[in-house]
Amino acid sequence: MQERRKAREVALQVLYSLNFVNLDVEKALELFWGNFVAPKSAKEFAATLASGTWHHREELDGLIAGCSDNWSLSRMSKVDISILRMAVFEFLYCDDIPPKVSINEAVDLGKIFGSENSGSFINGILDALNLKLNKNNAAKSVHPSARPTKA
Asked: For residue 148, what pLDDT band results from cuts at 50, 70 and 90?
């Protein structure tokens, strides 16, 4: 699992850099790998996270904004918003990763790369969003006793 941690760190660095340069995500990844080495599986996971997160950022930002009371996205640090986007991408598009793992990884990244308050800030938003997503999924599934019977 150390490879996945490294992949998340790489994806975070690429996503963060995209806030400041006018490159597409694939070119940013290519530039990153031109200077650093990693196992193939880490490269693949980093590419999935960075590319997927960047291409879905509007959708991810909407979900984050819906769970960040008193904090607009423009007030959040670029590091925190990059970590949040990546974790929410994992919630929605990486079925093999339990939400609890995504939250823990995001909190750890926040503690390493963010401010002293990033870990708790990220944890609060992701916990709230995870609860909201679970409620929405539960509401969508129909209980068997509520289904109409055949006449």
From this structure: very low
Q: Please state, in angstroms and rounded to a whole number, the distance separating the CA atoms of residues 90 and 21.
A: 24
H/E stretch holding 120? helix 118-140
DSSP three-state, residue 85:
helix
Give me the pLDDT at residue 53, please.
Answer: 98
Residues 6+ apart with CB under 8 A from 31: 23
Q: Which amino acid is at 28?
A: A
Domains of the chain: 2-140 (1.10.940.10)
Task: Report the C-alpha gap between 30 and 49 in whole angstroms.
Answer: 14
**pLDDT digit string (tens) for 28-87?**
999 999 998 888 889 999 999 999 999 999 999 999 999 988 888 989 999 999 999 999
